[in-house]
Each structure stands twice: as C-alpha cells, then as structure tokens.
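Changelog note: in this version the structure field was regenerated for every chain. One regenerated record is shown below for reference.
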Amino acid sequence: MSYPNEGVLNTTTGVTYETIAAAIADAKDDDVLTLAAQQFDELIDINNAVTRAAVTAPASLTIVGQTGSLVNGVSILAGDVTLKNIEFNGTGNYGTVHVANDADVTLQNCTINAPEGTAGRPIETAMTISGSLIIDGCVIYNNGRPDSYLNPAAESGIIQVLNSEFKDGNLAAEYKVDKLSAAAYPVIKGNTFSATSYIGVSDVTAQTEAVNLSREVKLFINGMIEENTFADADQVKVVITPL
C-alpha cells in the first residue's frame, strides 16, 4: 500500500490532499485513503448531510494510517467506514471515538486516547445505534477519564469490542435486560484489562437492580463479556450495578 510523505493520498485515484476532510469530500464509494506520518489537527467527521467539517462522505470508505499518523478524533453518523493503524489524540469535551445513527464503523489496530483535562471519554456510542461499531486489536488510554461507554444498540445494531487492551480505565456497558437479543448488546471478548480496570454493566431499563437480575439474564450477559484477561487475578472482573 502506498503512503504519502505529507497529507492524504487517495490510492484509488492517486490524488493527494492536505486534509482528511478534503480527501473524504472528494472520495467515491470503496475508495482507500492513506495518511502520512504526521499530526492531522482535525476530526474525521462524517455524516450523510453537511457536517461541522463540511464533509458528505461516500457510502463506503477505508482510511489507513501508519506509525506516526495522529488524528484528533472521529465522529461518524453515517456510512460504512473502516479505520486502520491510526492514533487518535483526543480533543474537546466529547468522546474521542463517537458513533451514532446507522453508521457502520470498524477500528482496527488503532490507539485511542481520551481527551486530557475534559469529561470526554475515549469511546462512546449513542443510544440505540442501528448500525455497528467494531473495535478490534486497539489500545485504549483513559487519561484520567473513568471509562469508555457503550450504550445498547437498536435491535438491528451491533457493538463489539474484541482483542483490545485497556491500559488505565474501565469499560462500561448498558444492557436492556427486558429483551434477550444478542444483536442489541455489546459483545466484549478477548480483551486485556490493566490491574486498575474492569468491565461495568448497568441495566438500561432501570426496571430492576442489576444485582437482582434473573439467572437467565445474568448468564446471557456473562456470555457477552467472557474470555477477557485481567492483570490481577484477584480483582473484581465484572461489576454489575444499577443505573
């Protein structure tokens, strides 16, 4: 794969751009953009309509970085977007990685830093997303923020956090315990958590305290969050709490 010395290269067309926003605005379906090893002082900000970065994205797009490719953050509300090998610095008061609506977003081998000195989380999904968020093989730094936060997806939605490493913070997930549809719940498997980190689970329906959930529901949730590794074998691996 070819990478530019500066800016962003559309490997499909061979055209180079100064900013990610300009490259996305000019991209067509299934184009692949590659990033130079530099700081991009911008968000990857995508929606069907004009966004804060004035970008209307194609239906499907792949953006690939390399060592030294640094981007402030990502907010995706539409489209099928794959992001690979990018370090997200974290900026502003919102989550570094924010996904909503019917967007289908995959992050592979990325580093995700929470914004320092703000309330922003490293990862946050909007309520009842109908698309998907798949995080695979990433490294997450909370930088003093309490957690990454996964709201439950809609019935058609998919949220998966796989084979990733949580360095210094927790991962919180909400589950609608009044329904037992696997598609509507975060799947958290194959991850590594530091000695100070854990998985927290809340009942989004607020109809019952999570500690008093039925055996069926507890078994279902445990199936969604199994096969993770914790640095301290004696630590509380999963904290189930009410809202």
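Spot check on this record: The longest strand covers residues 39-46. The helical segments are 20-26, 215-224.
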